[in-house]
Amino acid sequence: MDSLDTSAVEQFILLGKTVKGKALEALITQVLEHPGVFTFGELLELPSIKEYEKSSPEAHKQVALLKLFAYGTLEEYKARRELFPAADLSPAMYRKLRMLTVTSMASNSTLLTFDALATALDLEPGNTRQLENIIIETIYAELVEGKMDQEKQCFAVSGVASRDVRLPQDLDDMIDILGKWGKATEQVLKSLNDRLTDDSKERQKFLAEEKNVKDEVEKVKTKLKGETDSDMVLGGLGGMGLGGLGRVDDLLVGGPEDDSKRQRGAGQLDRGGRKGGI
Questions:
Q1: pLDDT for position 125
Q2: Where does the PCI domain start and stop, copy by copy (predicted)?
Q3: Is 67 helix (H, G, I), strand (E, B) or coil?
Q4: In this structure, which of 34, 99, 119, 145 has its CB flanked by the most CB atoms within 10 Å?
């Protein structure tokens, strides 16, 4: 995620290298109120800022406020109010610090309850509308990504922009977060591999069953074809007909034609015999 107005930051850095005293104090105020600037590490590294911090107690408090916006939260501001300028935060600063607070919370947890957010953002209990507006502004500023669930009263984080890192204080936290992320990634990969293995086994099982079905179908086809061929042979004989079978006698010696001849011959002999007898 890229929530940084780089052109504005570059302008402020160039000015920071040239101005001093009250002009530098005014520059810090402009940076903290600018709606598109949410990282301040480069400004804090400027030699002019470091010199200004040492120039007076008020200057020290002003730079402390810049550091708060770089690394801290609204809760820290309220808990250590004496470390910062006596003047209250302007509405623009207060709004930005709330958004940065949401960003810090989102970097530490993927599920933020509305109650926890309301406490951290110094909102009245039950003021859901104002809380939702702050979350929406933080999303539009590209500081966080996620989805609000009004029914469950929570904000599910899916992405978060990085804030300035305070070395070496924040190094251990970074290592811890990266370690947790690594373990979570390993678990996801293991789950995916297990699922792929299961899917592969299921596919092999399906292919085996499909082959068995095809084999059975072929067997049935072969059997039916054999029965059909047999019926065709019998049908052919039937085509010759029982009449055909009757005509077989014609092909045999002593068939109907021979019988007729014998009968005629016998008749002639009989008549001849009788004649002879007479």
A1: 79
A2: 1-162
A3: helix
A4: 99
The chain-wide mean pLDDT, for the chain, equals 83
Distance of alpha carbon 158 from alpha carbon 217, whole angstroms: 52
**Is it the case that residue 245 has pLDDT exceeding 60?**
no
Are the C-beta atoms of 103 and 142 separated by less than 8 Å?
A: no
Measured between alpha carbons, how far is residue 12 from residues 5, 26, 254 in Å? 11, 11, 131
What is the DSSP secondary structure assignment for residue 252, as one 8-state letter? S
Let me know if residue 248 belongs to a domain.
Answer: no
pLDDT in tens, 160-214: 999 988 776 666 766 777 787 788 888 888 888 888 888 888 888 888 888 888 8
> Does residue 251 belong to any structural domain of this protein?
no
Same domain, yes or no, for 178 and 162?
Answer: no
Please give the tally of structural domains in the chain. Answer: 2
- DSSP symbol at 82: G
Question: Both 158 and 181 in a single domain?
Answer: no
Range of the domain at 211: 167-234
Do the Cβ atoms of 43 and 19 come closer than 8 Å? no
Residue of 95, 101, 94 lying closest to 75 (CA atoms): 101
